[in-house]
């Protein structure tokens, strides 16, 4: 490839470098050797060339606004959850695995949280024959219930992750799909306001 003439080469180099200039205006001139020069400072132009120097207003690149970073609100430390009452039975709405809403009976006498087989199927939980089981007492005696792991369980915005639950159709109320046991409730200071119908939870 033949070398480019001095003037053309200079023009190409300068043209490629224009985007690197941060100034809003610049000056260019051709010296006695036919070489094109460019600068953002008029004092860099030789005195005899200043009169013929071309002043050019550069087009500034538009600034791309930085994306707004919204702060993540802190998780709540306490909540008051309205509950349904059936005699002495307290029933609260819960969200399981961040997708399934159901109702569980608040049971401080249950060591584990229990969910029904139907609710387990809705959560795509398959309790196999080799699942670990836990014994618990019912009106019909001691039974063995298989254990599973819930990704999360949320009551009134209060979330506990990786919670062990037993799968069994045991509930003192037909409208509930299980029991909310101590392995969830023990994470909170709990108060049941029967007059206002509120379950108060505060993280320990």
Which properties best describe this structure?
4 helices; mainly beta; disordered N terminus; six-stranded mixed beta barrel; rod-shaped; 204 residues; three-stranded antiparallel beta sheet; 2 domains; Cathepsin D, subunit A, domain 1
Describe the structure.
This protein is mainly β. The chain has two domains: 6-57, no CATH class; 78-203, Cathepsin D, subunit A, domain 1. 13% of the residues lie in helices and 42% in strands. A six-stranded mixed beta barrel has the order 6-7-12-8-11-10. Strands 2-1-3 form a three-stranded antiparallel β-sheet. A hairpin with a 4-residue loop joins strand 13 and strand 14.
Brief overview, please?
The chain has 204 residues and is mainly beta. It has 4 helices and 14 strands.
Task: Summarize the helices and strands and which ones pair or pack.
Blueprint: H1 6-17, E1 25-30, E2 36-39, H2 47-50, E3 54-57, E4 78-82, E5 84-86, E6 89-96, E7 100-106, E8 113-115, H3 117-122, E9 133-138, E10 141-155, E11 158-167, E12 178-180, H4 182-185, E13 188-193, E14 198-203
Parallel strand pairs: 7-12, 8-11
Antiparallel strand pairs: 1-2, 1-3, 4-14, 5-6, 6-7, 6-10, 8-12, 9-10, 10-11, 13-14
């Amino acid at each position: 490839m033949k070398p480019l003439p001095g003037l053309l080469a200079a023009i190409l180099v300068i043209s490629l470098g224009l985007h690197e200039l941060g100034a809003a205006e610049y000056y260019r001139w051709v010296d006695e050797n036919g070489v094109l020069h460019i600068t953002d400072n008029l004092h860099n132009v030789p005195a005899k060339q200043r009169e013929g120097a071309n002043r050019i207003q550069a087009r500034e690149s538009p600034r791309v606004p930085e994306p707004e970073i919204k702060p993540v609100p802190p998780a709540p430390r306490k909540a008051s959850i309205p509950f349904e009452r059936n005699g002495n039975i307290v029933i609260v709405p819960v969200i399981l695995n961040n997708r399934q809403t159901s109702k569980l009976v608040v049971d401080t006498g249950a060591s584990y949280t229990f969910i029904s087989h139907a609710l387990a199927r809705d959560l795509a939980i398959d309790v196999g024959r080799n699942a670990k089981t836990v014994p618990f007492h019912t009106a019909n005696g001691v039974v063995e219930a298989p254990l599973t792991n819930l990704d999360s369980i949320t009551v009134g915005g209060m979330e506990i992750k990786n919670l062990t639950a037993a799968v069994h159709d045991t509930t003192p109320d037909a409208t509930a799909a299980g029991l909310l046991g101590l392995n969830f409730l023990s994470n909170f200071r709990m108060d049941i306001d029967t007059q206002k119908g509120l379950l108060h939870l505060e993280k320990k």
